[in-house]
Amino acid sequence: MKNAIAILGLALLVALPVSAATSLTGKVIALDAGHGNGETGAVGVCNGVEVIEADVNLAVRAELKALIEAGEGTVHEVAQRFSRQDRVADAESAGSDVLISIHHNGSTNTSADYTQSFVTQKNDKIFAGYIHPALVDALQLPNKGIKNDGYGMTVYGSLPGVLTESYFITNTDAVCDFLDYQSGATNTRVQKEAQAMYDGLAAYFSANTDGGGGSKGRNR
């Protein structure tokens, strides 16, 4: 009888699912939801209802955080401070491997819409080379490419990072789509964007097993 119980216990143990490691296992991803802390960012309107960029940025971060944590990664939510330099310092102090600063563009032209990303350092461009194409593929918007720039968060520190402008929140279709998302719709831009960023992260860490040489052990 004891032998039968032991065999049954072993069978149950073998049958239990084992959590498989992913390329994100053990990685710390800093997610910055652009603006906030009293700063709205761009503002779009759908049928008289306003949507502020800061809320869209937070929604994408929440969706992406859930995906990363399901993939065995760790998320550091960057504090929404006025200074971009302080935000980067916050990400670096958490021992983050990479940083994504989530933004959505704005224009007085409510039909304007395209995907663009911004980098400064060489390691930013390598990292963005995984995130940006995934966004373009998922959102199917005109691709304005990865632009080297000197004003965004990627200017500061040595952490591989990218500032994304996945689409225009002032675009009427995008605003209405976000309101649909808030009402419980699936397969919206928010969800597509978050999944694309996750896919880009997974590919990046698969190709750069050391995390690309982030803030850990590196100085600018």
From TrEMBL:
Protein name from the UniProt record: MurNAc-LAA domain-containing protein
A Pfam short name: Amidase_3
Annotated MurNAc-LAA domain residues: 88-202
UniProt entry tagged with the keyword Lipoprotein: no
InterPro entries found in the cross-reference section: MurNAc-LAA_cat, N-acetylmuramoyl_amidase_3
Keyword Hydrolase among record annotations: yes
Cleavable signal peptide: 1-20
GO CC terms: outer membrane-bounded periplasmic space
GO biological process: peptidoglycan catabolic process
Any one GO molecular function term: N-acetylmuramoyl-L-alanine amidase activity
Record keywords: Hydrolase, Signal
PANTHER family cross-referenced by the UniProt entry: N-ACETYLMURAMOYL-L-ALANINE AMIDASE (PTHR30404), N-ACETYLMURAMOYL-L-ALANINE AMIDASE AMIC (PTHR30404:SF0)
